[in-house]
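Posting for a labmate who doesn't have an account.
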Amino acid sequence: MLKKIGFVGLGTVGVHMAANLAKSDYQLTVFDEDAQAVAELAKLGVKVGTTPAATAKGQDMVIVIVPESQVLVFGENGVLEGIDPGTILVDMGTHCIETIERMSQEAVKRRVMFLEAPVWGTKEHASNGLLTIIAGGDESLLGRCREPFSYFGLNIIHVGKIGSATRMKLIVNLLQGEMMQSLSEGLVLGEKMGFKADKILEVLDSGGVASPLFHSKGRSIARGDFSRNLALKYVHSQMIRVLETAESLGLELPAAKTVCAVYAQAVEDGRGEEDFSAIVKLLRK
């Protein structure tokens, strides 16, 4: 039975996942290099680890969700230095296949059970416990994790062996990036023809192209609200990874190349920390 959970990574999404876990009966210990994020979690009564290794020590489960796991997981005082045999290690970030495979191999060496489970969703989804969790690995191990995952995830989908979830997330990231580009072009074209964004969105919501992303992001754009929910720079980095994977498979993805170039320009213009819907600003120039 899982009782003690270590949580490493209190970023835009992770901080809300941990906050929801703090409402449970689990004994939660958190770590992040951002002192403000740690202080916010400490107010909820959770323990604070001094290092990733200390946070992982003595836990039944350790959840890691950081943009790049190399230092916090593999480095000195990283998670793998402190984690005990028999612990469940769950990576919920989005990494390259090589990183996931290395983490899996290191877990085997340490007799640690490993589950790959990248999350899909925004800060808003995380705050409301509505994330989608895409899992790769032993399905029975996922079964043991479903109860704690339910505090921040609505949909928990097993897609195959280790590596499968990372590959599936590439598909998600590709479509998400392209859909935002399509929405932005549609709104800008409509505005140039004299329509208000709200009226365009009303029509889109009524037909076959309706989608939750168009609905929520379209209205944020209409309000001029580009506060960070999913950082534009992260979407750009994932589009790059999609193109690298496609090239390795001998695939040509012309739309993805075009969209990636738009995100690259937005980052160059200094919009990387804004929400990814801010790419509409480039089209409005």
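Reply:
Got it, the structure tokens are right above this. The two ends are 56 Å apart (CA to CA).
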